[in-house]
Amino acid sequence: MTTTWWELQILCDPSLEETIFWRLDDFGCRGMAGEQKGQSYLIRAYSPQAEFDHLDLAALALLLKQDAVLAHLPKPVVKWHLIDEEDWSSSWKSHWQPEEIGDRLLIYPAWLEVPTHSERLLLRLDPGSAFGTGAHQTTQLCLEALEMRLGQQPETQVIADIGCGSGILSIGSLLLGAKQTFGVDTDILAVTASNSNRALNNIEPERMVVAQGSIDTLPKMYPEPFDGIVCNILAEIIIELIPKMSAIAKPDTWGILSGILIEQIQPIADTLEQNGWAIAALWKKDEWCCFNIRRN
Ligand SMILES: C[S@@+](CC[C@H](N)C(=O)[O-])C[C@H]1O[C@@H](n2cnc3c(N)ncnc32)[C@H](O)[C@@H]1O
After folding, report:
1. What is d(CA 58, CA 53) in angstroms, rounded to the nearest whole number?
2. What's the CA-to-centroid distance between 164 and ligand 1, angstroms?
């Protein structure tokens, strides 16, 4: 059965890009792409018709406009129309290009022919309807932090990936040499996407294990403590997860947390401190940041 999709087109001030991106993700959009259009920025986002009606989309448009007013920026122009499955995949895919991240990785859309030679590690990806194309600052911050963390003796590292989405951080860790990853996501579509991206990158199933669930699911998948934890979810959710992280960690476990806006640094830092974690480094990209943490 084919799905009909809403295509939302949002023409906005470029500085609203990140806020809109997260609003759309929170709303449940699957697949988003953005491009510069003169002085403005055009975001396209897609979601199955069956999940939303006109009223939902009108409410979303109102929220986006309110965000702009609060930020003292011009209101975005929001339009939507229906497209069929074929147009959805070709439209979205044509807007997503290979992207170099850090010094070693190249994110490579699954539908492009693989180059015969690449200086970089090719991370092939078809996120389907899951979050994680590598285009978002928070994913990039996590991949760059992983590159640093896995610089020495990566082959000993077993990593927990909480909120794995498309599986991008698990696959990135394994390409950088990690021993094994265990990913969880509350969204079953993310589990499906992670598994097909694992296969796309020729990674053995036992090296990259994925299940539907959250942090409490991880000990059932791997009963030992993890060497590293990556988690790129919204700050409000991370605050709920931090008190549970010690249960899956050992004294020298490291963590990489993102999905955090700069103004949310303090509550995250306080929660980490209260739960026995120290901040080793804090990296920023635009208004997003990424905590590199270790046990106290
Ligand atoms: C921002 S995406 C990150 C995807 C990918 N790891 C990346 O870095 O691009 C966050 C993911 O976390 C999942 N998620 C949200 N709340 C969660 C929770 N409490 N436990 C596990 N996963 C969760 C969402 O379904 C989504 O796939």
Report:
1. 9
2. 6
